[in-house]
Design brief:
Blueprint: H1 26-36, E1 44-48, H2 54-61, E2 66-71, H3 74-87, E3 93-97, H4 100-109, E4 114-119, H5 128-137, E5 140-151, E6 159-160, E7 163-171, E8 174-180
Parallel strand pairs: 1-2, 1-4, 2-3, 4-5
Antiparallel strand pairs: 5-8, 6-7, 7-8
Helix pairs in contact: 4-5
């Protein structure tokens, strides 16, 4: 797997082996960033269920200021850290090993907010619980966007607290839902 664009374009990243993670394919990743916009002028990114960290690292390569990668699997979190260091993003990326819900609550308690959030849970779990927490905990900045990957047969609801669905794209068995917190709405 490689970083597609930006300062780390073409650089390889490691991917956890086994069936505990399901890396987002290059094709889907490229499509996501075509929809979001090719490059960013700063901003904070949260990559929840990070796996290899590919989505968060791609955002950093494309101009995001900082990222938090959250992964519960020990080996995947180690690979995230390894990828961060190999790309030279150590000062801009934090890797947190922990359960998604617990980590979101801890981040909210610190007053953190993010401009771009990726949610890619195991298909059996679906993105609904994480989207609900993100919307209710105020972790999405005004005008912030959330990208949720899920099984095409089980799309999430169209609204989660302050988050509204704006787009849905399908790629074979995988779908990607896009949500936004309106810029004029408080958390």
């Amino acid at each position: 797997m490689r970083i597609i664009a930006g300062t780390a374009r073409g650089r390889r990243i490691e991917v956890p082996s086994g069936l505990n993670t399901r890396p987002t394919s290059d094709r889907i990743r490229e499509s996501i960033f075509n929809i979001l916009g090719q490059f960013f002028d700063g901003g904070a990114v949260l990559d929840l269920y990070a796996g290899s960290g590919a989505l968060g690292l791609e955002a950093i390569s494309r101009g995001a200021n900082r990222a938090v990668l959250v992964e519960r699997d020990r080996e995947a979190a180690r690979i995230c850290s390894q990828n961060v260091e190999a790309l030279g993003f150590g000062s801009r990326v934090e890797v947190i090993r922990g359960e998604a819900a617990d980590t979101l609550r801890r981040l909210a308690a610190t007053g953190a907010s993010f401009d771009l959030l990726f949610v890619d849970p195991p298909y059996a779990e679906g993105p609904g619980p994480a989207l609900d927490l993100l919307g209710s905990l105020g972790l999405v900045a005004a005008g912030g966007r959330v990208v949720a990957e899920h099984d095409r047969r089980h799309p999430p609801a169209g609204r989660f607290s302050s988050l509204e669905s704006t787009d849905l794209r399908s790629f074979g068995a995988t779908s990607v839902s896009f949500f936004e917190r309106p810029a004029s709405e408080s958390p």
